[in-house]
Specification:
The structure holds two protein chains of two kinds.
Chain A lengths: L1 E19 L6 E17 L2 E5 L6 H9 L6 E6 L2 E5 L3 H19 L5 H31 L7 E4 L13 H11 L6 H13 L16 H13 L5 E5 L7 H18 L2 E6 L2 H7 L2 E6 L2 E7 H6 L4 H8 L6 H6 L40 E4 L2 E3 L4 H4 L4
Parallel strand pairs in A: 3-8, 3-9, 6-7, 7-8
Antiparallel strand pairs in A: 1-2, 1-4, 4-5, 9-10, 10-12, 11-12
Helix pairs in contact in A: 2-3, 4-5, 4-6, 5-6
Chain B lengths: L3 E14 L2 E14 L3 E5 L6 H8 L7 E10 L2 E2 L5 H7 L4 E4 L13 H12 L4 H27 L9 H23 L8 H14 L5 H4 L9 H13 L5 E5 L7 H18 L2 E6 L2 H7 L2 E6 L2 E7 H6 L4 H9 L39 H5 L5 E2 L5 E2 L24
The chains are: A alpha/beta, B alpha/beta.
Chain lengths: 385, 407
């Protein structure tokens, strides 16, 4: 891990899905899958992203790689801007329009002069926003990015491989698309990759259904490696596998990291495995980053109440330790990310929640060196200065 | 009779597919004491789910129980006819399935699905039945009184309806006599709808569903994953079964919800004193919940013992391998995981010997040729590994015993 070299930096990343009115096309609801999160990954590091289902961790990974266009915020790769979001201006413009309508209602119709001035006022505002949107859109289009730098390993090895393609076709598809190699060199490359991930040369001509889950995941990894990426986004690569196979894949990922100098963004919900593989971990809840810290620090003294209860609910593979550990069992369930209420997203389930929590959105701040927490009362809860 | 609620003897279940016989369960035997929680742990394809489906007699075509006995409460479930086993399913044995998203019927309300099992199985208690007889007696007395009044009165007008009243009276008397006779024979009537609804709501309350009176009228899609699993637990509990089989009930859930459901199962076990078989692949859940553990692999039992046996002195290489493939809670220097090489056996052509032998680093000649019997390690622990045999070489970490436990 190179602490002087930040490979990926995400600033205020947002991914909203708009639910539109069927006829009018007006945005009626917003699903804020990823809402204003920022983090960075050092070169050569494994950054774990954990959270419950529906918290936006997968969406976050997909937005970074560009499978989803980001709604707002910036993504830097190797200190170069690779994507800027412009979609959020749409919502802002709509909000401004709604505000205008509300204000117009208050003014009596006869007062034409006032209405006109107000309308003009807002027209200028909206025009400015539209211009801003256009320029960001243009900026986003003009950005240079190398799709080979970031690759992805998908969750389900049974659906992420095309059943009609042979293993060799699957692995070499990217190489062919980018015209990196040709002729026999491609074949050699495929053989080399297969051997790197612990498969055999003769597997190249087979189809995915002939392989077991663990082997399929290896094919998925070989496909990601084919492009010589710098960063691999691993989206729950082990959760569909058996325990004994999980360890094989995790060990292999660790070996490959050393061999090819890779950086991982490791998305998972299996907390003990994430802790094992990651150097630093980010905990997400309903589209927000709750806590970011080094994995040891996070597991030894979690500061955010959500992280505390999340960690305490993992059953440990040790009967004695289980008896001693105190469980913090959360009440209720994750609420919907559609039109979330203002304030801290966790406030409804948090036992420390106070009035402020449901009104003001906490900002993520550095409580200790390299330990970021988004909670209003983190100092009070943990007796910190 | 012993205090074993369940005895599985040499159970073999196979699926007869076009490719050939897939031997999912290959001769397993175990006993389960009343009131305990037994954990069955294994990877996918180890036969843990099929063995429990066999107990419920829910193995579908082309699957079949080939051999063996399942003695539940003194009755061999394997020999029962389909009609007879239906009286057990839901009543004495209940199951909680893995996927709460698919194991509820989407076109019926929760109320409908919960009441179905109660209406099918539940009979009212003897005390309640006697109470009803008493109230019947009172009505009979009332009727007799009015009848007598009518006879006394000379007015013919009052005599109207005497015949119908008499008919009613004989009917009620007949009914009372029948109920009394049934009570003597130990039979009481089934729940009616109002009582079933009351019971359903009561159990939804126990599993912690808020406002059960209104939520019971909802459809499964209106419930979240955790809530559905709670509803399924309530459904399994509704007839107070003696044995609940929970087949990976928390695998599809998030950790915080998993903690809630595990907590609920513990509470339910304590309050209702049921026996639970808990099937999972998560060693953490086993350590948290169970007292006894069976480790399965390739359709066979590899090791059996108390939680402490399995976690602190595992004797089978597969159990040891499982422990080493899970990250332990160590802070600081990262320890590399030790995976089990290779992949699980193909049950179409299972290895002739020990199913784990192709992946085992201690595998000997005998392991390939013949499956190991269960060697008795201690009073509570048995392990199926040839390393425990007296002719085997000494390997560090493995105890050796001379005797073979055939039980």
């Amino acid at each position: 891990m190179d602490k002087n070299h930040i490979l990926l930096e995400v600033k205020n990343l947002k991914k909203h899905f708009y639910i539109k009115h069927t006829i009018l096309g007006k945005i009626t609801k917003t699903l804020k899958a990823v809402d204003d999160i920022s983090f960075f990954i050092y070169k050569g590091e494994t950054f774990g992203l954990v959270g419950e289902s529906g918290c936006g961790k997968t969406t976050c990974g997909r937005t970074i790689i560009g499978l989803y266009e980001n709604t707002g915020g910036e993504v830097y790769f190797d200190n170069k801007l690779i994507s800027v979001g412009y979609e959020e201006f749409k919502l802002i413009i709509q909000d401004v329009k709604d505000e205008l309508k509300l204000k117009l209602k208050d003014i009596p119709k006869e007062d034409t002069a006032k209405t006109k001035s107000l309308k003009d006022d807002y027209k200028g505002k909206i025009r400015e926003l539209k211009l801003q949107r256009k320029s960001t859109k243009r900026l986003n289009k003009s950005l240079e990015r190398n799709p080979r730098d970031i690759q992805m390993i998908f969750q389900d090895p049974f659906t992420s491989l095309n059943p009609r393609m042979t293993v060799s076709e699957i692995i070499s598809e990217g190489i062919k698309t980018h015209k990196l190699l040709s002729g026999e060199a491609i074949e050699e490359r495929v053989f080399y990759l297969l051997e790197t991930v612990g498969l055999k040369r003769e597997h190249a001509s087979r189809y995915p259904h002939e392989f077991s889950g663990g082997q399929r995941q290896r094919i998925g990894i070989a496909r990601a490696l084919a492009m010589d990426p710098k960063l691999i986004i691993c989206d729950e690569p082990i959760s569909a596998l058996d325990v004994s196979i999980q360890a094989q894949v995790v060990n292999m990922l660790e070996d490959l990291q050393e061999q090819f100098d890779l950086t991982y963004l490791f998305i998972a919900h299996d907390l003990s495995m994430v802790k094992h593989i990651s150097d630093r971990i980010g905990v997400m809840y309903l589209g927000k980053m709750m806590e970011v810290a080094s994995s040891d620090d996070l597991y030894q003294n979690p500061l955010h109440p959500y992280t505390q209860s999340l960690l305490s609910s993992i059953p440990l593979p040790d009967p004695e330790a289980n008896k001693q550990s105190k469980r913090i069992i959360l009440k209720g369930e994750v609420t919907s990310p559609i039109n979330p209420k203002p304030g801290c997203r966790f406030a409804g389930r948090c036992k420390y929640a106070q009035e402020k929590c449901s009104q003001v959105d906490p900002v993520i701040e550095e409580i200790k060196p390299l330990h970021f927490v988004a909670c209003h009362f983190v100092r009070e809860i943990n007796d910190l200065k | 009779m012993s205090n074993n609620i369940l005895e599985v003897k040499n159970l073999k279940t196979s699926f007869f597919t076009h490719l050939g016989e897939v031997q999912a369960v290959r001769g397993i035997s175990y006993e389960l004491k009343k009131g305990g929680i037994l954990g069955i742990v294994g990877e996918s394809g180890s036969g843990k789910s099929v063995s429990s489906l066999s107990i419920m007699r829910l193995v579908d075509d082309p699957g079949r129980i080939v051999e063996g006995e399942i003695i539940f409460d003194g009755v061999d479930l394997v020999k029962l006819s389909e009609k007879e086993i239906q009286d057990y399913r839901g009543k004495e044995l209940a199951m909680i399935f893995q996927d709460p998203m698919t194991s509820l019927n989407p076109v019926f309300t929760i109320k409908n699905q919960m009441m179905e099992v109660i209406l099918r199985h539940m009979h009212i208690t003897k005390e309640k039945a006697l109470e009803e007889v008493n109230s019947l007696d009172e009505t009979i007395k009332e009727y007799e009184k009015t009848l007598k009044d009518k006879e006394k009165s000379i007015d013919k007008k009052n005599n109207k309806g005497k015949a119908s009243l008499e008919a009613k009276l004989t009917k009620i008397i007949k009914k009372r006599d029948k109920v009394l006779k049934d009570i003597e024979n130990g039979i009481t009537r089934k729940y009616n709808k109002a009582e079933a609804l009351e019971r359903a709501i009561h159990y939804l309350k126990i599993v912690g569903i808020p406002e059960p009176e209104t939520r019971i009228n909802e459809y499964p899609h209106q419930f979240s994953g955790g809530m559905r699993q709670r509803a399924l637990v309530a459904m399994a509990l509704a007839c107070e079964p003696k044995l609940i089989i929970a087949d990976e009930p928390t695998t599809a859930l998030d950790v915080t919800i998993q903690a809630q459901i595990l907590d609920l199962l513990k509470k339910v076990k304590k309050e209702l004193d049921t026996t639970i078989i808990f099937i999972t692949h998560d060693l953490g859940v086993i350590a948290e919940l169970c007292q006894e553990v069976i480790v399965m692999y390739g359709g066979m039992i590899m090791e059996k013992g108390t939680v402490d046996d399995i976690f602190y002195s595992p004797q089978h290489p597969y159990t040891k391998g499982l422990h080493q493939s899970v990250p332990k809670d160590v802070v600081g220097q990262k320890k590399r995981l030790v995976p089990i090489t290779g992949s699980p056996p193909d049950l179409l052509n299972p290895p002739k010997g020990c199913p784990f032998s192709p992946r085992c680093k201690y595998a000997m000649q005998i392991c390939i040729e013949e499956p190991a019997p269960l060697f008795k390690i201690s009073d509570t622990q048995v392990s199926s590994c040839w390393l425990q045999h007296e002719y085997s070489p000494d390997v560090e970490g493995f105890k050796k015993t001379g005797g073979v436990n055939n039980g």
